[in-house]
Amino acid sequence: MGIIARIAFAVLAISFMTFVTFFGRLPIFRNTPIAWLHRAIWIYLPNTLSAIDQRLTSGRVTSYTSRTWNYMMYDKHPTILIFFFLLLCGSQYMYLPAAWPHFTTFNKVVGSLAIILPYLFLYLSAYTDPGEINPSNHARAMAQYPYDFSLFLPGVTCQTCRLLKPARSKHCSVCKRCISKMDHHCIFINNCVGAGNQHWFVLLLLTTGLQTLYGGVLGAGIIAAKVRTRYPGWSVWPWGNGAPPFKQYLLAWGWGIQDKVGMGAVTMLALLTSPLVWGLLAYHAWLIYCGTTTNESMKWSDWQADMDDGTVFRRKLPADRAKDPRVEPVWTRWPVEAEQIIVRTDDGKPPQSKHPLPGVGEWEPAWRLRDVENLYDLGLWDNLLDVFFPGYSFRDQEFPVAEQRGRKRRTKKTQTETNGEVEG
Ligand SMILES: [Zn+2]
Ligand SMILES: [Zn+2]
Question: Where is each Palmitoyltransferase DHHC domain found (predicted)?
């Protein structure tokens, strides 16, 4: 059954290319073929096509295409959101009438949730304010996070919004506004993912992952049951003991879905796209675990590149450092403060104090990201708290808690050292 194999291959190829196109620039893929493919898609291919177009139509096609492309990618409009919504509706329309009668009561209850929840979280992700920063809420936005003197420095103004950039914020060129704790702009929800809606976005990924997996597995079960009426002992898993040759395996699939082609196609689409959704969810879970964002992980990766070049230096920031209230919040809800500053130099020598930089003591070279602290990582549970209850004040219980946290971090280190001594 060549056609089944071809559909499966096409869906896999499209999923893979979508993944590379949108996620190939992530730091994890640096120096891998995925990053190269991403560059090929975004730089080499457009450049080649535009060179050909220059010769043939003196660039008319390019200018039209790039206008359309810029509109698609960098203007705020719900095209992809509508596509995503229609994909969900269309798939369910093709899948449910054939599959529903085969469901047990339990699957009907769980299945209903799996159908409804992605719509709910899609709506909430798309229409919840991701954390727009404007003059009226600027002071509050500034009090969310302290500057870490690594990725975010006080005193930087957004050229467009003309407001001081709070720590962890970023200006979104699509939404044309600064967003608190900006992660990235997502065209599937036609909105930024930021402090205000990151939790809805994570739940959207989780429920979409569950829907594709659950629907895919149930669909495959129904098809397998049908196949077994003709080929007893046939299994969905093609690599078991006594499994038929692969060609025969695909033939059986083809026979199984022939009277329910719509449901079969959606089942395959669900099973093949599910890993993509779970991969994205795992990536966001990893970011939360590390206490960082997509935006910040890229900045960290730039720092790593400079550290490899040996041009990064760090030194201590005193705890009783005087803050300039014109550019830096005097109080934040965050329980810890920056204890270090890191800087890049052009010549690989420690910074010369032409412009006095904050901090005390000697500059030491920083070689590895492990040598510098991520101020925004409080540990998994507090990081989750920060994502799911944006604006939660880690200092509501007054300063002693903050002190304890600070002390806990320091004690942990001392304890390890003491343990080492005892063992040594
Ligand atoms: Zn801005
Ligand atoms: Zn945006």
Answer: 157-300
326 exposure class (CB count in 10 Å sphere: 0-12, 13-18, 19+): exposed
- Output the pLDDT for position 418: 34
If asked whether residues 278 and 361 sit together in one domain, one would say no
Q: Ligand 1 centroid to 185 CA: how many Å?
A: 14
How close is the Cα of 130 to the center of ligand 2, in Å? 9
Name the packing angle between helices 198-230 and 261-290 (round to 10°): 140
Q: Give the CA distances from residue 221 to residues 68, 193, 218, 357, 377, in Å, rounded to whole numbers and listed in that order.
A: 43, 36, 5, 65, 43
Together in a domain, 356 and 410:
yes
DSSP category for residue 100:
G
Neighbouring-strand partners of residue 193: 184
Q: Which residues pair with 342 in a beta bridge?
A: 314
Ligand 1: distance of its center to the CA of 202 in Å? 25
3-class DSSP assignment, residue 339: coil
Backbone Cα Rg of the chain:
26
Structure tokens given for 75 = 């203007």
158, with CB counted inside 10 A (0-12, 13-18, 19+), is middle
Q: How many angstroms does the Cα of residue 115 sit away from the middle of ligand 2?
A: 27
pLDDT per residue over 24-74, tens digit each? 887 778 888 988 999 998 889 888 988 898 888 888 888 888 888 887 777
Residue among 161, 172, 178, 186 flagged as catalytic: 186
Q: Do 304 and 280 sit in the same domain of this protein?
A: no
Is 300 found in the same domain as 248? no
292-325 per-position pLDDT tens digit: 999 999 999 999 999 999 999 999 999 888 889 9
Dist. CA 144 → ligand 2 center (Å):
20
> What is the distance in A from the centroid of ligand 2 to the CA of 125?
12
Q: What is the DSSP letter of 131?
A: -
Q: Is 186 a catalytic residue?
A: yes
Q: Are residues 125 and 216 in the same domain?
A: yes
Domain that holds residue 399: 294-421
Residue 144 lies in a domain: no
Domain co-membership, 305 together with 282: no
- Surface-to-core class of residue 22, CB atoms within 10 Å of its CB (0-12 exposed, 13-18 middle, 19+ buried): middle
Ligand with minimal distance to 189 CA: 2
Our count of domains for the chain comes to: 3
Run of H or E including 341: strand 340-344
pLDDT interval class at 196 (50, 70, 90): very high
135 C-alpha to ligand 1 centroid (Å): 11
